[in-house]
Amino acid sequence: MKRNLFIVAMCVALILVFVGCQPQVVTVYQAIHEIGTGLEAVDNSDNYDLDARFKCFQMFQLGGDCTLHLQATTGIVSYYFVATENSDGSASCELKGIYVYEVGDIAFGEIRGDRLAEYVDKLNFTLVLENNVVTSHDLPQLIVE
After folding, report:
1. What is the C-alpha to C-alpha distance for residues 135 and 49, in angstroms, rounded to an integer?
2. What stretches of 21-70 adopt beta strand conformation (E)?
3. Cβ neighbour number for residue 86 with a 10 Å cutoff
4. pTM of the predicted model over 0.90
């Protein structure tokens, strides 16, 4: 009986050690909020940075409105989207609109709704955290200029 109790106690201890040693998955959401959001580019984080293409996230709410401003001065300068967190900590984003400067016959302005698909190559992209940098490898690109 004591031997069985000892084996059970050891198994429980090993499970607790194993679970306790699992690294915490830092999410894109956590990194962005540690860096900071707002109308101006900020960096309140010693741990995380934004991709060099990104100026700032004006807002970032899972399941709600998100705005990413780019460093660009022509083409797409802002993305408006809704983000959903994935189990790996990345964020799947559904594009809702863009803001452009000097694109075709558009001097500047917002493109949303049905017209959006006429101007970008895709409506979904993913934000990931790589080497403590919030980035994306598949941002929607303009298909007209």
Report:
1. 9
2. 49-50, 54-60, 65-70
3. 14
4. no
